[in-house]
Amino acid sequence: xxxxxxxxxxxxxxxxxxxxxxxxxxxxxxxxxxxxxxxxxxxxxxxxxxxxxxxxxxxxxxxxxxxxxxxxxxxxxxxxxxxxxxxxxxxxxxxxxxxxxxxxxxxxxxxxxxxxxxxxxxxxxxxxxxxxxxxxxxxxxxxxxxxxxxxxxxxxxxxxxxxxxxxxxxxxxxxxxxxxxxxxxxxxxxxxxxxxxxxxxxxxxxxxxxxxxxxxxxxxxxxxxxxxx
Length: 229
Ligand SMILES: Nc1ncnc2c1ncn2[C@@H]1O[C@H](COP(=O)(O)OP(=O)(O)OP(=O)(O)O)[C@@H](O)[C@H]1O
Description:
alpha/beta, binds adenosine-5'-triphosphate, transport, ATP binding, ABC transporter ATP-binding protein, nucleotide-binding, 6-stranded mixed beta sheet, single chain, ABC_transpr_LolD-like
């Protein structure tokens, strides 16, 4: 079982030679064909590529939501791939912030309760911010009692970010985190993301947005399931 011992020498995220195939009838689609990548602590890496190139599949494999057919994924030195689903879920809860397009908020809970749920997996009681502090940090100080349906697009993005960060993750995996936001709100959310990454969390963000690419330390291009050299 995982012990959640911090390996500070390990990168925030390391993927080696990831393969993932989808079978429909007689057809087999190779969604990932040997993807390797590393995200260092405090580093922001953007992943770009055309529609269907494998970005969502990659994020799902990195988050342990999907299993690669081959290769491995390690978060802060701990392997999450090829482990039982319950172990993957536990590692994800403790080590990974996930900000996918489907949103990470439970609709029947208010924002504060969503944060409290994610915050339970914080690995150390030292410096753990309160839900109110997390809400303040993302500029939602007054909206903690709102449910997701009562929030605007910008507020939803901030609430999703607060939930994704509430477990103090080693790595934050984000899919178009500013997808539906206007220019000002996008910049505010990006500033939050970048500030957080600079505190030591690795950030891997899949995007089509030039503004998101602009905050990245490195950009990886994926095409037909392969990261371009
Ligand atoms: N569940 C699935 N069943 C069959 N094929 C799939 C499945 N999920 C993805 N694929 C295929 O795998 C390939 C990669 O898809 P993926 O969703 O990872 O691309 P993407 O880069 O995220 O695309 P987009 O930018 O449009 O979201 C595509 O050819 C897609 O059709």
